[in-house]
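Q: How would the structure tokens look for this protein?
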Amino acid sequence: MTEAQQRIYAAIAAIPPGRVASYGAIAARAGLPGRARLVGRLLGEVPDDIELPWFRVLRASGHIAMPPGSSGFREQARRLKAEGVAVVNGRVPLARFGLDADLDRAVWGMPGF
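A: Here is the predicted structure in token form.
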């Protein structure tokens, strides 16, 4: 496994229950800013012996990246909802559930959704 893979997988593993992060945020936290597509590719190549909370990774817009109605889409939405994350029309409000939501709220006074 490459160092980049290790850092990306570690960043995904660090997303706590009830929170989500975008592909780009994971890349940045792994020290690879601008490599969101690499995060997506590596999520599709996770070795069987590694268990990651893949379902906590979303598009920058907060949308689930899988096609709406697909089994993967339904599974991701189900897992997120089981952790108390609001998913409406395939989208999660990042201002409320994103990794940096508390920081944004503290700095900007953003209300929850």
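The helical segments are 3-13, 23-29, 36-43, 71-82, 94-97, 101-108.

The longest strand covers residues 21-22.

Upvote if useful.
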